[in-house]
């Protein structure tokens, strides 16, 4: 996959850049969605499972610590990219 870029007046912004933060799953919502509380600022976001987690049948349950990738465009939605071991 190529790295798509958008050129603004004086800078290039990459579309593939995501903000990765740690969080704790609060509850499981319908439609393979999860409510996650971020550790850095105690915000609550709605996140879905990344394709690799679904492909390898990784279970994510309330109370698990996960790594969430947020889009720089909408900080209220994200994608769970990693379930931290030992949680």
Word description of this protein:
There is one protein chain. This protein is mainly beta and 87 residues long. The chain has one domain (18-83): OB fold (Dihydrolipoamide Acetyltransferase, E2P). Helix content is 6%, strand content 48%. It has one helix and seven strands. It has one helix spanning 51-55; strands at 5-7, 12-14, 19-29, 33-38, 44-49, 65-70, 77-83. The strands form two sheets. A five-stranded mixed β-barrel has the order 3-4-5-7-6. Strands 1-2 form a two-stranded antiparallel ribbon. Strand 1 (5-7) and strand 2 (12-14) form a beta hairpin. The protein is globular. The N and C termini lie far apart (32 Å).
Topology:
Elements: E1 5-7, E2 12-14, E3 19-29, E4 33-38, E5 44-49, H1 51-55, E6 65-70, E7 77-83
Parallel strand pairs: 5-7
Antiparallel strand pairs: 1-2, 3-4, 3-6, 4-5, 6-7
